[in-house]
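Q: Focus on the chain.
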Amino acid sequence: MASSILGIGTSGLLTAQRQLGTAGHNISNVNTEGFTRQRAEQAARQPQFSGSGYIGTGVEVQTTVRLANEFLEEQIRDSNSQYGKYDAFYALSTQIDNILADPDSGLTPTMESFFGALQEANDNPSSTPARQVLLTEANTMTERFKLLDDRFIQLNEQVNRQLVDLTQEVTDAARSVAQLNTAIVKRIGAGQGNMPNDLMDQREVLIKKIAENIDVSVIYQDDGAANLFVGSGQSLVIGATSATISTTSNTYNAEDLDIILTQGSANANITNSVTGGELEGVLGFKSDVLEPSRRSLGRIAIAITEEMNAQHRLGMTIQGSSAPFPQGQDFFTDLSGTASLPINGLPGQSSNTAASLTITDSRVLTTSNYQLDYDGVNYTLTRLDDNQVFPQLPAVAPDILTLNNIIDPSEGFSLALTDSTTGLPLVDLDPGDSFLMRPTFEGVANIGVSVNNVLDIALAGPIISGAVMNPDGSAINSGSGEISLPKIANLNNIPMTGNAISAFDITLSYADPNSAGNPGFNITSLTLSDTPPAAAPPLPFMDLSIDYDLNADFGGRTFAFDGVTLDSSGNPLPDFGGISFTVSGKPIAGDGFLIEENKAPFDDNRNGLLMSKLQTEKTLENGSTDFQAGYAIIVSDVGTKTHSAQIDLLAQQTLSEQAKATRESYSGVNLDEEAADLLKYQQAYQASARVISSADEMFQTLLNAV
């Protein structure tokens, strides 16, 4: 009897000791990351049968369990993944938002200063200081373009560094999970099915760290191992084996990185299937904010230089016809050429393929990238922003391919594929060849100011017009007809040398109605001193007539003839001399108008005013917005996405805190509860010791009685 009492007391003592140890373990790990509260599960021992029934034999600890809830753990992983995504996106987008919207570093102030300086120069076109300020502000604006573009490049480098670091973190954590899988499976086997709780906590911490970088799915095996899957189901960890996640240069562009998952000898590009975690946040920032912003900035740079250059070339410099080149040259560096717009092709494709891209119309240019694929028979072009696939074009050698062959010219650019060794049209593209075109992505790269001398700023108009006057300065015209200031319609037909433009004279006279009763205008004098090419026919004098029925409302009607060029037969064709003009009012027979060289360009600002007008002219997005509004759209778009990310981040932070609080309430260590357990099991320990003491006294009494 005494021995059975001793056994019962001993079992109670050992059980209380185990419970005290478990409580102490919980208390000591209250601040350990990822620790899950443990509980020793105790139960009564098997009773012994006696003649009077079954007699209890004491207590035992069956196992020690983790108070973990897989649903709550999964909530933590999901919230970590979403929080990591929004946190990374917001942290990066804030940087670009700050620089774009900053009045000191943004583009808007420099554009306003440039056009303000242009207006000042127009107000005083003969002022050298005003012209110098214009050049200074032009250089400041182009430098600001470069500053912003350089910042975009730096952010892209930062993105790449983060991708490298994040993928390495995932790889290291996955390797550790695989190692813990091995240890856990081994200990479960050695422990007869009992779980190594602390190792399982360590593994869960690693899985959560992986989830912070990339969304991960977890499936537990019967042997205790955890299998991890990422992306669209690619295995990251299977039992004791882990995959490697790394970065590699993008197929088309070495400056961009793709995410590669390597399992054994098999590689899978998971860039487009990455979800959740900081990896998705970084990739999302790159695709949704960084690249669109850089492409949009490039389009503005291309548009403003193209529009300003086109108008500047139509003007006359302050020196007029005495200058070697009286008409304006490019004001800014030409960004529409092929040199500044590279095309990236697949590595290993036709080695002699040379691709070049040329901007044809910035007014209809989009900010999208394009991909051109060749399957051996057809070319297929895809606009990547909306995945619009344009009609296929059978390859017809040896024609140079242009995008106008396969899409509407309204895309705003053209492509030519040539043989890099001969420069001739390409005739041997290989099936599978593919090209990525980014028309505006590097649009800012070569921006600069081409005009270096204030005397070369073409603010004046090269030609003027007016009524024919008598030698004494008196008026000849008796009617109310007026002629507008002439406008250059075609630069190619304008005389370019000083001698030529000085001899550029046209006299337009109003003639009596013809037999059909239609009045008209005749060119009665025309002088052009340019020497035409040897193969070109001579330019004869011509009659230029505009017929209009005479009726009661003739007065006030406007006649416009948009310029003509003569063919070899003397027939009028568009762009006569490259100019256009408008005659309005009510001229009478004998009235004449003169179009001639501008001999006083130093006080003329007509071309400068047309350049200034470009500030508010809607030249982007098919005529829907101007330069500054286009930049404002970039700022607004980035700001909206940044603000949205901030809202999502704050919301996700709240959800994450709630998930952690729920998990802590179930699995975390409660010091008050553990302190109560200490007192309870301390008392149980003392009571069990008293049982043992009683058993000892009974045994001693028995011995003394013998």
Observations:
- Residues 213 and 277 are 4 Å apart (CA to CA).
